[in-house]
Write a structure and sequence with these properties.
alpha/beta; Beta-Lactamase; Heat Shock Protein 90; 5 domains; 7-stranded mixed sheet; 6-stranded antiparallel sheet; elongated; transferase
Length: 1100
């Protein structure tokens, strides 16, 4: 560049213009040449044009204001006329109806009393059916609606109109201020440019036009310093001579120094650089060494300006055009401001106005350049202006429109309006713009708001007055009919609410009893790794169900439809593990294989309501277990909806096989989890809107999950499928008797799915099974936002990172499920379909890294064979003896995967050395961690201090108690809680069994009776027990039977305590009526249990 510069800066931010009142005086700028006079003339013309535009805008604003006022007056006048019309229309029909009614009330001829009564009833019915007042009320309301709508529309229009006027005035003010500053900046720059051009003419006249030259460095330096006031915005000027290569040697001898070159083409010269340290300019056809310079830039004398790339381009363009040429903005060293360099070519003779570029190049003898401090120029300009409203000004070089360079200003703050004024600095190839914004955002349009709100309030007040009058008339006529309807509705709602409350309370508190009861049992034992999993599952479920119960009970006590979902991050995979943990006992007891699989594309953390999501899964899995007999499977899978939208481009292997895209024809069994046939799961979601492109509520920030629960149960008959989601309705009347339940689970699930903006559907085939699918919208969460309860296994997972595992399973979909669980631990997995192929795999990979990292071998029970297992173990030992396996490396541990197996069988296999451990399905993270830690030698136990013996022990010690409950978990909880207190507990699962046990004589001291049981509930069982006791007592009292036959007990009455999950008073009262002595609420609480039992047993 001509002058000192550093790196080019882009996108600098605007400086706020201060309101400093100074005189607007341009007379200080001298007009030395004809070019400057033309510039001033052009400026005056532009200023006049801008003033004319301002006047036109002002006239337009006044016209629009008058038009607005006239239109507003017309609108207000129209509203008042409409109001008067509504009043008259309301009064006239009322007067007509009153006259007609008086005419009808004239005395009629005497008739019999019965006929008069009948006629009166007919008249009343006729008046109620065809009341003119009712008809008049309808069209009055229509007129009232029209009036209110017109008033609302008028208020909106008035706000929009006044707001547009305010915005227009603000835009005009900003445009005028910005255009004025742009014109003044352009004028001052043009005047300064003319002075530089005049200096170029002076050099041409007195240096090249006189021989010898009348200018030397001293003369040039003194003159430029003394005339610097004419160029107050330049940091320096310099003159470079055009030197051809043939003239170089003579030139250097004449001046006594060598032409130097810049260090690089883009060199940034510094003010204290030494020219003697620069290298001589390389050989070129032409040079442009600086021979004269102002003292402020004297350090650039002898430097060849043609050696810089950008300088050379500017010089060539300046001499070809004969006009001033500007550079791109750069930083000036002295002021550290952004500036530009103006270059003029100096000619040795006068050129005609129409000289060609070749003639100009031929006549060129040198180049005069001046640097401009643009920020100082703009600041000076802005200080000359005073404004009532502060604005922010930015000046940009927009030659490159895609990357404009900020020449003046600071960071841009968007305040709503922006005005752009073009700047012409004389160089047609460089474009500049001035951007202006208000310093502050516009205030609220209070004028428009107040005016529109005033019209709206008046409209609503008038409408309210008339609506009250019309409604009052209609209310008097309809009070009786509405009162009777409300009475019937209230009675029906009261009955339904009571049924709903009783059912929901029992159905939700029943699993609560299992959760908290199991937790108490485990807290009284030494917890190993497996027990820790039970305790954590029970604790988490207990906390969730406590809040769930409160919400369900509150919902049943108040109006429905006000349920809201949470939005919290949770670990979807851990939640599904907890659900499987709760259902594992039932599935294993029936020999049903229970499994879960989550696609890799599903995020680890999602945002939603984990409690409600768990409730849906628990309901569906519970139904599947209930209606699935021996054998078979229940498979829960989770995928993204996007994965199933393209059925022919499915990447997930489990989904492929589930959609029958991959068929296993290697055996006669079906390629399913258990080998049993299943229904086509695609039909369960084929009508979902989200899959058919009909869902208009899609949120790009949400993900849609598709959850499928597949079972091989009894299926649902075709005629019962239409009512499957109806509350309190099951497939047929015998379902409740055979399987239990109330039929509310699916209804609740459907409601929750709809709250999640999803859909639920199913496909079922009698004798094959059912598949339920539902979708839900969830947010994407971050692992860092998870609650610590979801991260409890994170430290243990790191222990297995990098290990390898071999899964041996003849069902590919089941092997993929096992792979899914192992990959959650960071374990790489390979799959083989038989033990023979596993031996082949081990032989082929021996000595590789995969074999070196192999730590686990998991074998499904379906491919288990004792002989082949021995062959596998001998193969592993052989590899170790042959040195293929490092002695320090552990032999891979072998695990057997089983759905149902007795503890004795498991112990036998481990003792015989066939396997290192047996993993019971369903697989879940906590069980895998515990078993692998134990097998690999890095597991441990957390000892938990046992609770002190409860005071209940003094009451229940050695007491024989019968527990009657159809729920296995509840029986275990009740048994454990009572045994902990020293009681001798017996359990039965049906009411009929309780009748046999409690038939006198018996040795039980008390009975805990569940209420909701299939076949015979607790109420009926208690009535029959009391009936049997009453008959025996009568026989003993009458002497008909000897007392010795009945154990020397003269009066039989066993305390029967109801175990109820219902907390409503109606249930408790019914317990007392059927003969029960008291009730204990589920789940058991020690204090309440003690206070109840103390009534029947003495301490000690």
């Amino acid at each position: 560049m001509w002058f000192v510069k550093t790196t080019v800066l882009k996108d600098q931010c605007p400086v706020q213009v201060e309101n400093i009142p100074t005189e607007h005086d341009l007379s200080l700028l001298e007009q030395d040449t004809s070019v400057s006079q033309n510039a001033v003339l052009l400026t005056s013309l532009e200023h006049h044009s801008g003033r004319k535009n301002i006047l036109q805008r002002s006239a337009l604003g006044v016209h629009s204001k008058d038009h607005c006022e006239n239109l507003s007056f017309c609108m207000v006048k129209g509203c008042w006329l409409l109001l008067v019309g509504v009043i008259l229309s309301c009064r006239i029909p009322g007067i007509r109806w009153k006259l007609r009614r008086n005419r009808k009330n004239e005395p009629a001829p005497l008739q019999p009393v019965a006929q008069q009564l009948q006629l009166l009833l007919q008249q009343k019915q006729h008046q109620q059916a065809q009341s003119p007042a009712k008809g008049a009320g309808k069209w009055r309301k229509k007129l009232l609606v029209i009036f209110v709508l017109l008033g609302i529309l008028t208020s909106f229009w008035l706000f929009w109109h006044l707001n547009q006027k305010i915005i227009l005035r603000r835009e005009e003010t900003l445009a005028n201020m910005c255009d004025e500053r742009a014109r003044m900046l352009q004028d001052q720059f043009n005047v300064s440019m003319n002075h530089v051009n005049a200096l170029a003419i002076l050099v041409s006249t007195f240096h090249h036009g006189k021989h010898p030259s009348a200018i030397n460095q001293k003369t040039f330096g003194e003159y430029t310093e003394r005339t610097a006031f004419e160029r107050p915005l330049t940091s320096g000027v310099a003159y470079a001579l055009k030197v051809l290569h043939s003239e170089r040697e003579q030139f250097e001898k004449q001046h006594g120094w060598t032409i130097k070159k810049m260090e690089t083409e883009d060199q940034t010269l510094v003010q204290d650089c030494l020219t003697e340290n620069l290298d001589p300019a390389p050989i070129k056809d032409e040079y442009a060494p600086v021979i004269f310079s102002q003292e402020t830039v004297s350090h650039i004398v002898s430097i060849d300006m043609m050696s810089g790339k950008e300088d050379r381009e500017n010089i060539l363009r300046a001499r070809a055009t004969g006009k001033g040429v500007l550079t791109s903005p750069f930083k000036l060293l002295k002021s550290n401001n952004l500036g530009v360099v103006l270059t003029f070519a100096v000619y040795n003779k006068d050129l005609p106005p129409d000289a060609t570029p070749d003639q100009r190049i031929e006549a060129t003898v040198g180049y005069l350049g001046a640097s401009y401090d643009v920020p100082s120029l703009v600041k000076k300009l802005l200080h000359q202006l005073a404004s009532k409203q502060t604005i922010v000004v930015n000046v940009y070089d927009t030659t490159n429109a895609s990357a404009p360079i900020s020449m003046y200003g600071t960071d841009v703050t968007d305040t709503g309006l922006l005005h752009v004024s073009n700047l012409d600095f004389g160089d047609p190839l460089r474009k500049h713009e001035m951007h202006c914004r208000f310093k502050q955002k516009p205030p609220l349009p209070w004028t428009a708001i107040n005016a529109s709100l005033g019209v709206l309030v008046i409209t609503l007040l008038v409408g309210h007055i008339f609506l009250a009058a019309i409604s009052r008339i209609a209310k008097v006529e309809n009070d009786y009919r509405e009162m009777m309807e409300l009475k019937a509705r209230a009675e029906a709602a009261d009955v339904a609410k009571s049924q709903f409350l009783a059912t929901v309370s029992h159905e939700i508190r029943t699993p609560m009893n299992g959760v908290l009861g199991m937790l108490k049992m485990l807290m009284d034992t030494d917890l190993d790794a497996i027990q820790r999993d039970y305790a954590e599952t029970a604790h988490a479920s207990g906390k969730d169900l406590i809040s769930l119960i409160n919400e369900v009970l509150d919902q049943a006590k108040i109006e429905s439809g006000k349920l809201e979902l949470e939005d919290v991050p949770f670990d979807l995979r851990s939640l599904l593990d907890n659900v499987l943990s709760l259902s594992s006992d039932k599935s294993n007891g029936k020999g049903i294989e229970l499994a879960v699989y989550v696609s890799d594309r599903v995020p680890e953390v999602v945002v939603g309501d984990p409690g409600r999501f768990r409730q849906i899964i628990t309901n569906l899995v519970g139904n599947s277990i209930k209606f699935t007999q021996d054998k078979g499977h229940i498979f829960v899978s989770v995928h993204l909806v996007d994965e199933v939208k393209g059925a022919f481009d499915v990447g997930d292997k489990v989904l492929q096989q589930g959609l029958n895209l991959v068929q296993d024809m290697s055996s006669r069994t079906y390629n399913t989890l258990s080998g049993f046939p299943v229904v086509d799961r695609w039909k369960s979601w084929e009508n979902f809107k989200v899959l058919n492109g009909k869902d208009t509520t899609e949120d790009p920030e949400k993900i849609k999950l598709l959850v499928t629960v597949e079972d091989t149960g009894v299926g649902i008959r075709l005629d019962a499928q239409a009512r499957i989601f109806t509350p309190f309705v099951q497939a047929d009347s015998s379902t409740s008797r055979h399987y239990g339940g109330t039929g509310i689970g699916l209804s609740i699930s459907k409601h929750l799915v709809e709250l999640m903006h999803g859909e639920i559907g199913f496909v079922s085939e009698s004798g094959v099974g059912s598949t339920f699918s539902f979708t839900g919208a969830f947010g994407k969460g971050e692992a860092s936002s998870l609650d610590p309860k979801w991260k409890q296994y994170d430290p243990a997972v790191s222990e297995f990172q990098g290990l390898g595992a071999l899964v041996i399973d003849n069902r590919s979909i089941r092997a993929e499920v096992t792979r899914y669980h192992l990959r959650r631990l960071g374990i790489s997995v390979d799959i083989t379909s038989s033990i023979e192929s596993a031996c082949t795999y081990l032989s082929s990979t021996c000595g590789t890294s995969a074999f070196a990292h192999l730590a686990l071998i998991l074998i499904d029970k379906d491919v288990w064979n004792q002989e082949t297992i021995l062959q596998l173990r001998s193969l592993l030992k052989e590899h170790r003896q042959n040195g293929r396996l490092d002695v320090s490396t552990h032999v891979p541990k072998i695990f057997l995967l089983a759905t149902s197996m007795s503890p004795a069988e498991r112990s036998k296999l481990k003792t015989a050395g066939f396997v290192d451990n047996v993993l019971m399905k369903p697989l879940r993270l906590s069980v895998l961690i515990a078993c692998f830690q134990e097998a690999l030698g890095n597991g441990g136990k957390d000892q938990i201090q046992r609770k002190k013996t409860s005071t209940l022990g003094t009451l229940l010690r050695d007491k024989r108690i019968l527990v009657v409950d159809d729920n296995k978990v509840n029986r275990r909880v009740a048994e454990g809680a009572l045994k902990k207190c020293g009681a001798i507990v017996s359990c039965v699962e049906r009411g009929r069994d309780a009748l046999d046990k409690l038939k006198p004589p018996h040795n039980f001291d008390a009975c805990f009776m569940d209420l909701q049981m299939p076949e015979m509930d607790g109420f009926e069982a208690t009535r029959q027990i009391r009936s049997a006791e009453s008959e025996v007592n009568k026989k003993i009292a009458s002497g008909e039977t000897s007392i010795e036959i009945y154990g020397n007990v003269s009066h039989w009455h066993i305390p029967i305590l109801a175990m109820t999950a219902d907390v409503i008073q109606a249930t408790n009262e019914e317990c007392m009526k059927c003969g029960m002595d008291d009730y204990v609420s589920k789940p058991f609480e020690e204090e309440k249990l003690y206070s109840t039992v103390a009534r029947f047993f003495k301490s000690g």
